[in-house]
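hey m, so remember when u said the tokens were messed up on ur end? i reran from scratch. heres the input so u can diff it against urs
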Amino acid sequence: MIDAIARHADISKAAAGRALDATVGAIKTSLRKGDIVTLVGFGSFYVGKRSPRAGRNPRTGAAIKIKGAKVPKFRAGKALKDALN
């Protein structure tokens, strides 16, 4: 991905790597705050919640409790969907 960014933006690979790291870091920070991150034409990142549930240990078959968790989710935008079809 860094190679593609560097080639299309006509910048060095080091600069492309820093730009990608900064973008991913900003998305992570916003999601930690509970914000929705929308990249127009691409899609939206948001935080979903997974409820606690019962499960089974696959090795022993014993019942276990699985804690609830916050999970990152992505919803593709119309332009991205249209580009694939």
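this time it looks ok to me. The chain has three helices and five strands. if urs says something different then somethings off w ur setup not the seq
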